[in-house]
UniProtKB/TrEMBL annotation:
Keywords: Cell membrane, Membrane, Transmembrane, Transmembrane helix. Belongs to the DoxX family. InterPro entries: DoxX, DoxX-like_oxidoreductase. It is found in: Cell membrane. It is a multi-pass membrane protein. Pfam families: DoxX. Its main location: membrane. The chain crosses the membrane at residues 38-64, 71-90, 105-123. It comes from Flavobacterium azizsancarii. This is DoxX family protein. The keyword ATP-binding does not apply.
Length: 128
């Protein structure tokens, strides 16, 4: 059994809950139309929003299956970094408490994904 199972399942649940809800409450289309299109991504905002959420769903499935972990991780980390740049950075660090809508949650997800992608750390493996 892989030592990252608990982390993979936790991140998969987060990615799925963050994505699937938007499918049913029009959140994905709203994010595309009311945010991405407004900040310069028009007329592609809705398409980009759907690609982001679909990438989360695919990454969640891959994390559960323990397949293509680095690919899923890199794509998700890219999305999270762009979320920090476009949305969360201007709100500061804290999600709640010392602020609102900050970047601390994305930062934590990035670190957890890196831990999943590199369970032995970043040290170069040696040939024996």
């Amino acid at each position: 059994m892989n030592g990252t199972l608990i982390l993979r399942l936790a991140v998969a649940i987060i990615l799925l809950s963050h994505s699937v809800l938007g499918i049913f409450n029009n959140g994905i289309n709203d994010f595309g139309n009311l945010y991405l299109n407004q900040i310069g991504f028009a007329p592609f905002g809705v398409v980009i929003a759907w690609l982001i959420k679909l990438s989360h769903i695919i990454a969640a499935i891959l994390l559960v299956l323990n397949k293509y972990i680095k690919l899923a991780g890199f794509v998700t980390i890219f999305v999270l970094i762009m979320g920090i740049i476009l949305v969360h950075f201007q709100e500061g660090w804290f999600v709640v408490g010392g602020g609102r809508n900050g970047m601390e949650y994305n930062f934590l997800l990035i670190i957890v994904l890196l831990a999943i992608m590199y369970p032995q750390g970043f040290a170069k493996s040696t040939i024996k």
